[in-house]
Amino acid sequence: MSTTNPNGLITRFKFQSLLRQDSAGRRIILKGTISGQPALLLVERAAFDIDPAYLNSFPRLVTHVNNLGDNDIYRWYMANSLPDGTLDQPTPPDLKLNLIYPCTEAHVAKYSFQQSRAVVETPEIYTKFVRPYMQRCREEGRLNWVFNIIEGRTEQENVLFRSEEADLKDDFLLLPDLNWDRKTIGGLHLLALVERRDLWSVRDLTRGDVAWLRHLRATLVKTVEGLYEGVEGDMLKFYVHYQPTYYHFHIHIVHVDLDPSATQGVGKAISLDNVINQLDTMSGALTGMADVDLMYTLGEASELWTKIFLPLKEGKVPKSTG
Amino acid sequence: MSTTNPNGLITRFKFQSLLRQDSAGRRIILKGTISGQPALLLVERAAFDIDPAYLNSFPRLVTHVNNLGDNDIYRWYMANSLPDGTLDQPTPPDLKLNLIYPCTEAHVAKYSFQQSRAVVETPEIYTKFVRPYMQRCREEGRLNWVFNIIEGRTEQENVLFRSEEADLKDDFLLLPDLNWDRKTIGGLHLLALVERRDLWSVRDLTRGDVAWLRHLRATLVKTVEGLYEGVEGDMLKFYVHYQPTYYHFHIHIVHVDLDPSATQGVGKAISLDNVINQLDTMSGALTGMADVDLMYTLGEASELWTKIFLPLKEGKVPKSTG
């Protein structure tokens, strides 16, 4: 019987409908029939073969290379991993390519594999070593772009919303995360930057900020519901990064349908609700998030690892990072 | 000049080395040269085209279908999305396929897109509605497989480690997560099931459990370091799910190199260090995790949504779930 030949089943699959697409579009689930009986076909892009012989010939095998744009040394493309034969219709591209040419050693370092380490930042390590490091980052002008946006000097085309709250302390801007295409609602990813400048990170939040945080969260829900049709408050998740990329307090807002990736990883993201809640249930003897251990992951090439956590692991005293 | 033709650059790329492979193997970063100058080529599997015309012809286009195994109505394969031409070497498969045939309505429901909702489970909702639901799940025998493994009756081939601690309360089993191939160290994903049966979920952890949790975490680090060469304690992350899939307390242990996916999503995963820490800094007036709000996401088809949180959203009183 033909059903006993598992390979033949695939080509006999008759497509009816797409049930869903996920994993950043790289998985599709098709509903259909085989010999009149219902069947599901789950199709996923496979991992690449990393056999050097294949990688060697790879650039020659690529076909239908279609340049989508370029900026200086950066170029991006869609392409097919194989020549298509004599088919009735062109096959959709199955590859995204990014070319950096000519590249520098800094590019190579950035894209090379880097071992990560999970570290525990105690209140003492924070106060003695990490906070001075944060201060230096702020003083070096790494936050100028943030202040320029807040003050309306640059990048206004990226400001999706600027609040006008009764209390200046409650004001914020909404920016799109770089990975959001600004239109797919299920992939919505916003950054809420507070306008006040006294909060560097989640570490600065105290028990006294619970009411402020709850008000901010509620305002953000209302604002995003108003900006994006079809988005309801319970379709949004709020989190902060620790360590963040820059030391000006900001909150990530994502749609629940967004496929969780590194931005939501354990050891990087902390649920905002969790933070509010921890502050709210904290012993009165403590001030706030500066008084707790925080676990997070660091790349071995990061300054926080090389200058603070690696020396500590080796039993040495980190040099001043301020 | 040929460098001004961006498409020609790709085929002239001369491969030197693989810098890294990530995104579950679906991105590779190649270092090489073009006309003797250094270049980086980032290659990613693209999202699928979901044009119905393409989906219709898709099963016919698939070639080199290679059946890897089957179990009842489930079959899995590797395949190529296109016929290869007359190449010197066979092209590695670029697709993973799973076929469920014949399938039922339950399969269709399981794999269809389901809207998620972010809910806040207050201590009151937990006590009145969610805990009775957990109890019913336990009484329905949904945990028999867990007890069978703990008691050594079934699935012993899946037990990677069984502890023999001085205090029975400290004993645990290590199982592989279903998504781990059991050999790639950078993708390591284990589940630690405690042998004690009084902890249903993170909700049962109290301020008095901090020392027990710290001891358990330390023992798990030592055990995993001993089982897998090259794994150091600071390459591991620990988290719990809330809601979990089953109501017997277990801890997820993953390698820091594992690409974060839904299992680490905000609204699903809570860092174990965060839990220990929250218990440790909690006001003495509170007992433990049963006294805090917990935010998490639920599919609209889940019982917790249809029976508890949807009625609450509509201002109704949920019927007894016990």
TrEMBL record, chains A, B:
Molecular function via GO: hydrolase activity; RNA 7-methylguanosine cap binding
A single GO cellular-component term on record: P-body
Gene3D superfamilies: HIT-like, Scavenger mRNA decapping enzyme, N-terminal domain
InterPro entries assigned to the protein according to its UniProt record, in alphabetical order: DcpS/DCS2, HIT-like_sf, Scavenger_mRNA_decap_enz_N
Record-annotated active site: H250
GO biological process: deadenylation-dependent decapping of nuclear-transcribed mRNA
Signal sequence segment: none
Family: Belongs to the HIT family.
Name assigned to this protein: M7GpppX diphosphatase
Species per Swiss-Prot/TrEMBL record: Cryoendolithus antarcticus
